[in-house]
UniProtKB/TrEMBL annotation:
Organism superkingdom: Bacteria
UniProt cross-references to InterPro entries, sorted A to Z: AceK_kinase (IPR046855), AceK_regulatory (IPR046854), Isocitrate_DH_AceK (IPR010452)
Catalysis performed (reactions): L-seryl-[isocitrate dehydrogenase] + ATP = O-phospho-L-seryl-[isocitrate dehydrogenase] + ADP + H(+)
Family: Belongs to the AceK family.
NCBIfam families, alphabetized: PRK02946.1 (NF002804)
HAMAP family, A to Z: AceK
Annotated compartments: Cytoplasm
Annotated GO CC locations: cytoplasm
Key words of the record: ATP-binding, Cytoplasm, Glyoxylate bypass, Hydrolase, Kinase, Nucleotide-binding, Protein phosphatase, Serine/threonine-protein kinase, Transferase, Tricarboxylic acid cycle
The protein, known as: Isocitrate dehydrogenase kinase/phosphatase
Annotated EC: 2.7.11.5, 3.1.3.-
Length: 601
């Protein structure tokens, strides 16, 4: 029960120190995000990627700093529980008029659980639900930027309006031909506006900060006309001469979903009021969970908090059971799911078959690598949790037996809270969005029969997308390691995404070789590998027998991706990356490009 009086003198000091810790964190986070504009203007692509990677670590560093301060100044861990109840009430008071209250609540949760050693979310000392509303927050200071700006063009002034929109971002880099680019944008819009009556409220709303990622800057907004709203994004890139150009015009929710995909690196955006950005983006992508939007903005801890709240809400309003996930079982990860929930839960097994020479720490390092790396739309983001409690009665007995067999160290079944409810507590797990395993997706096409045009199209699309996924990973300096079909999944919009990370390596750490020519008939007829193989040696021509056993699949693969079986393809990419080249991987179909970059060259 919360106290009726705030009479502990140290409670306010602890709350204030925690708020100071959060404010320092967000100030540093926002400063690093704002610097993305300068890195874009100066074409510091490696610096941009480095900053994206390092910013992920900011949060945990600030939490540790805050915990150390609270222990040093207040002996916080030794304070009685009634003091901690008062700390929370003081903290809620400090959230009034705060511009990032939801993030500050999550920071409080992180610090408090570390100090009190409350190992999972069921306790009275954290914000299980938000205490402060994030609606209608604005910075009212005279010099503050609004969340978005509204422009009111006519049909005749659309080009001038979009030129003003771009110029208002004050990019310190010359455009090759901005009037040409905005004319292309307006031409792309014509299909949506031709023969459409422009209503009284016709306007364009644009978020006031650019979205930076890798080598691109994105203008994000929406066109409003009557009851219709059309989301849009305009990617701005550098041409070979160092001048800027608008590369494409992306329209509609599907385009925005691809741009903000869970399989891409996080954006850098300078936001005073992040909840206002999330609210605006949610109006563009109403089907995208708020948790994923926070993740896309680099606020991954807030994403985790919201995801867990959504998960608890789903548990309360569902009755199906957790089960072993369908599909081929992995040798390293034990995977389970809840059929009604669109995510899978993955935990590392306690032991692996002899052919898997790895450790728990090495696997966790691979997942961290993926978290920090540019995922180029081809590697699923993961949420990492510790000490997660599930209701025991929702677990299928076969699943419990599976965990007891393969990962007993990760399992506790108890009433740790003392509330009379037995829980399954998983010590460490990863959570990923559920996809259709590519091998199952292909098998569905085969089961229907390739004489059916839709089944053949599904097969061909799968094989082409599979090769495209590997090539995008190669461009991002990633060698997937285990390239079997079962380690890739198909998303809602048909993209093929890689999700098995225990064997990934940097491409530049691998040695790509051709299989040596046999020196005699004995070597040629040998069923064993008769040549020396180093620990990082890769022989691409040997991929074929494992991947292309089906004739129809082989035909499509060889037509579109035969180069993946040639060591020269891999080696040439490796050498260019080692020379400092960053390949372009576009978060939209290349057919959508205006061709300005080529024209400007």
């Amino acid at each position: 029960m919360f106290p009726q009086r705030l009479d502990a003198p140290q409670a306010y000091g602890i709350a204030k120190a925690m708020m100071d810790g959060f404010n320092r964190h967000y100030r540093l986070f926002r400063t690093e995000s704002a610097r993305a504009k300068h890195r874009f203007e100066t074409a510091d692509w490696h610096g941009q990627q480095r900053a994206q990677r390092e910013r992920i670590e900011f949060y945990d560093l600030r939490v540790k700093e805050c915990v150390r301060r609270l222990e040093k100044e207040f002996c916080a861990g030794a304070q009685p529980m009634d003091v901690w109840h008062q700390v929370k009430l003081h903290y809620i008071g400090l959230l009034v008029n705060h511009h990032q209250p939801e993030l500050a609540e999550t920071f409080f949760n992180s610090v408090t659980t570390k100090i009190l050693h409350r190992t999972h979310f069921h306790n009275d000392f954290i914000f299980v639900r938000p205490a402060v509303s994030t609606e209608y927050i604005e910075n009212d200071e005279p010099a503050a930027r609004p969340t978005y700006r509204a422009y009111y063009p006519t049909r005749d002034t659309l080009g001038d309006t979009f030129q003003a929109i771009i110029e208002n971002f004050q990019l310190q880099r010359e455009f090759a031909d901005l009037p040409r680019d905005t004319a292309c944008v307006v031409a792309a819009m014509r299909s949506r506006l031709d023969k459409v009556k422009l209503r009284t409220n016709f306007q364009v709303q644009v978020l006031t900060s650019l979205f930076f990622r890798n080598k691109g800057a994105y203008v994000v907004g929406k066109i409003i006309n009557g009851f219709n709203e059309v989301p849009f994004a305009l990617p701005i890139l550098h041409d070979d001469s160092g001048r800027l150009y608008i590369d494409a015009a992306l329209f509609g929710e599907d385009d925005m979903q691809m741009l903000f995909s869970f399989a891409r690196a996080y954006f850098m955006v300078d936001m005073e009021v992040p909840s206002a950005y999330v609210q605006f983006l949610r109006s563009l992508m109403p089907r995208k969970p708020r948790a994923e939007i926070y993740n896309a903005l680099g606020l991954a801890k807030q994403g985790k908090t919201l995801f867990y709240r959504d998960f608890l809400y789903h548990l309360k309003h569902s009755s199906d059971q957790f089960r072993i996930a369908p599909g081929i079982k992995g040798m390293v990860m034990l995977v389970f799911d809840l059929p009604s929930f669109p995510f899978v839960f993955k935990l590392i097994k306690d032991y692996f078959p002899h052919q898997k020479e790895t450790t728990r720490e090495q696997i966790k390092a691979k997942y961290l690598l993926v978290k920090q790396h540019d995922r180029v739309g081809r590697m699923a983001d993961t949420l990492e949790y510790s000490e997660v409690a599930f209701p025991r009665d929702r677990f299928d007995d076969a699943l419990i037996a599976e965990i007891e067999k393969f990962a007993p160290s990760q399992l506790e079944i108890s009433d740790r809270d003392g509330d009379g409810q037995t829980e399954v507590i998983i010590k460490h797990l990863y959570i990923e969005r559920r996809m259709i395993p590519l091998n199952i997706y292909l098998q569905e096409a085969f089961d229907t029969g390739l004489s059916d045009p839709r089944a053949r199209q599904q097969m061909e699309h799968s094989v082409i997308e599979y090769g495209n996924a590997i090539k995008d990973l190669v461009a991002a300096n990633i060698f997937p390691g285990d390239m079997l079909w079962k380690n890739f999944g198909v998303t809602r919009n048909g993209k093929v995404v890689f999700y098995d990370y225990d064997e990934i390596e940097y491409l530049t750490d691998c040695n790509f070789r051709r299989v040596p020519t046999p020196r005699n008939e004995e070597e040629e007829m040998s069923g064993e590998v008769w040549y020396s193989v180093g620990p990082r040696d890769v022989f691409p021509e040997t991929f074929g027998p494992f991947l292309l056993g089906n004739d129809a699949v082989r035909e499509v693969f060889m037509l579109h991706h035969a180069d993946l079986l040639d060591a020269a393809f891999w080696q040439s990419h490796k050498e260019r990356i080692q020379a400092g080249h960053m390949f372009d991987v576009f978060p939209y179909d290349t057919e959508r490009r205006f061709g300005q970059g080529a024209a400007a060259r």
